[in-house]
Write a structure and sequence with these properties.
The protein is of the alpha/beta class. The protein folds into two domains: 251 residues, P-loop containing nucleotide triphosphate hydrolases (Rossmann fold, 3-Layer(aba) Sandwich), CATH 3.40.50; 186 residues, 3-Layer(aba) Sandwich (Rossmann fold). The protein is built from 13 helices and 25 strands. It has a six-stranded parallel beta sheet, with helices on both faces. It has a six-stranded mixed beta sheet with strand order 15-13-16-18-25-24. It has a five-stranded mixed beta sheet with strand order 20-19-21-22-23. Helix 1 runs parallel beside helix 2, helix 1 crosses helix 12 and helix 5 packs parallel to helix 6. The protein is globular and about 65 Å long. It starts with a strand and ends with a helix.
Length: 475
């Protein structure tokens, strides 16, 4: 049987996803067969493998561990629809849509199925690193909280508690969490104070107070990372908001409600580009590239673009910019969107920058896919994934990729994870605007280099070493 370790938080966005990936990378580098696991995730950042859908966070953690992503790493995925309901994905396959209050009645059923998956992966691996969700101490939700409380309690799993000092209240976060679930306290290896800014000596007394109050060791006072590899939680979006600040290549990711799969753009962090998530028309005018990302409710997003004046601006400057739409963004670029209630009932004229029409069907497409692309910056096959209900048609033929002039659209997620596609696209953009060309980079190499560099920084290296010592060596 594998050993297991849980990374639990005092609240959302404390850094659980990243620390799970970091530890997965660290132990895998020691020759340990590591399996990342999150029993249930609520996220619109999904990735489709040949098995079906899973949360993107566990995909990154798999790559960090040197593993191929598997839906068993995230057996249950909830995709919020924005109307107090969520789509339920179990082991990669859609189970339908339920109102949020109804899902609580089904949690016991899913709990047992998830635990069976967990027991399987325990038997097959040397170390399973579990990522929790939100807060460990949501007292009204402890019953059937199999992501944090019940899985740790049932399987007696040692855990690390992560607090976020950047948002304040770290004493209440960490000490309070231990006090609210005292029955689990003996299982904790210690706590982490994450996202600290400034000299460590400034919080030396704070660490001593927390250790005294909790009677648990501090495993790390970890610095704030100004450039994270990815941010899975929708509270953060993982992209800077605001205005462009540099003179280099500028990419505007258009913000609208129900935005999804914004981690499509993480590979661009490996390049010398500036990305801003914005719904400000003036920033679109300053950008070289405008990207319309995925949406879980395309018609609602279209209405937002119209209300904010973004639709008019995008049409106006479409000949001056490079425009790319992905999935929901591809639908928005077309002539017409018809939805009889799959996402949001209605029929609306879209932006009209590409000639296709989109119709929504009850049957969902969720799969990895290889398509052929022939356009000015890339010619050949490319592997990605599709997660959609909408299907687009041009002259009666179904289409997954189109372009007209400098406007491009596709249903394929994960394009920028293909090094050749990303390089071809950026080279085309730089040539179009007369910007200097840059050499290509491998994203997975960039990811490994980043994780390796972070794991060697003094605070993170000490944290990984302390965790290894607490877990016992060899595993």
């Amino acid at each position: 049987m594998a050993k297991a370790l849980a990374i639990l938080g005092t609240m959302s966005s404390v850094g659980k996803s990243f620390l799970t990936a970091l530890l997965a990378h660290y132990f895998a580098g020691k020759g340990v067969r590591v399996f990342p696991f999150k029993a249930q995730n609520m996220s619109l950042n999904a990735f489709a493998t040949v098995e079906g859908e899973m949360a993107f966070a566990q995909v990154f953690q798999a790559w960090a561990a040197g593993r191929e992503p598997s839906v068993r790493m995230n057996p249950l995925l909830l995709k919020p629809l924005g109307n107090l309901s969520s789509e339920i994905i179990f082991l990669g396959k859609s189970q339908g849509i339920l109102p949020s209050q109804d899902f609580r009645r089904f949690k016991g059923h899913y709990k047992q199925r998830v635990f069976r998956v967990f027991e399987e992966v325990l038997e097959e691996n040397e170390l399973v690193i579990i990522e929790g969700a939100g807060s460990l101490a949501e007292l009204n939700l402890l019953k059937d909280d199999f992501v944090n409380y019940e899985i740790v309690k049932k399987y007696r799993i040692p855990f690390i508690l992560v607090g976020d000092i950047d948002r304040g209240g770290v004493f209440a976060q960490i000490w309070g969490t231990y006090e609210l679930v005292p029955e689990l306290k003996d299982l904790s290896l210690g706590f982490v104070v994450n996202k600290f800014r400034g000299a460590e000596g400034l919080f030396e007394e704070g660490v001593k107070i927390l250790e005294e109050k909790t009677q648990k060791p501090c495993l790390g006072l970890l610095p704030y990372l100004p450039e994270s590899l990815f941010e899975e939680d929708s509270a953060s979006l993982g992209l800077p908001r605001g205005s462009f600040t540099t003179r280099g290549l500028k990419i505007a990711i258009v913000y609208y409600p129900h935005i999804s799969n914004y981690l499509d753009f993480d590979p661009l962090k490996a390049e010398k580009v500036e990305m801003v998530l914005t719904d400000d028309p003036s920033e679109l005018r300053r950008a070289h590239v405008i990207i319309l990302p995925g949406s879980k409710n395309t018609l609602a997003s279209l209405k937002y673009l119209q209300k904010r004046g973004l639709a008019e601006v995008i049409r106006e400057i479409s000949q001056e910019k490079i425009i790319l739409g992905i999935c929901g963004g591809f639908q928005l670029l077309g002539r017409l969107i018809k939805d009889e209630g799959v996402e949001n009932a209605g029929e609306e004229k879209a932006l009209g920058l590409l000639p296709h029409e989109t119709i929504f069907f009850p049957e969902k497409i969720a799969t990895s896919r290889r398509i052929s692309i022939d356009c000015p910056f890339f010619r050949g096959e490319i592997q990605g994934f599709e997660i959609r209900y909408g299907r687009s048609f041009l002259k009666g033929e179904e289409v997954s990729f189109l372009y007209a002039g400098n406007v491009f659209g596709t249903y394929l997620h994960g394009l920028f994870y293909d090094d050749l596609f990303r390089y071809g696209f950026l080279a085309y953009v730089r040539k179009f605007f007369g910007l200097p060309q840059r050499p290509p980079r491998s994203f997975k190499s960039f990811l490994r280099e980043k994780l390796q560099a972070i794991s060697q920084e003094r605070a993170f290296a000490a944290f990984c070493q302390k965790v290894a010592e607490k877990m016992g060596a060899p595993l």
